[in-house]
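On to our target:
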Amino acid sequence: MSLPQQSLLRLLIGFFLNVALWVLTQKLGMWGSVERELHLVFIAGILAVTTVVFVLPVFWKGASWQVPLAFVLLPLPAVIFYFLFHILLR
C-alpha cells in the first residue's frame, strides 16, 4: 500500500472516530451523574487519543491535499482533551 493510500485510510478511520466522538459528546450532556460523566469523558479521551494517533502521521506522510483534511479532523479531539483535563483538575 502506498503512502497516499495509507494516509487516506488513516483519514477515513479518523473521520469515523470523530463521528463516534461527536455522538459521545452529544450523549455527555444528557447524563446527570458526575460519576457517569467522568466515565464518559474517559471513553471520549481514549477515542480522542486514537484519533490523534491515526491522523497526525498524515501531516508528514500524506499527499498535499490530505493535510487540510487532517486539520479538519483535529479540533474535536482537542476539545475533548480540554474537557478531560478540566475534569481531572477539578
About this structure: The helical segments are 3-28, 34-55, 58-61, 67-73, 75-88.
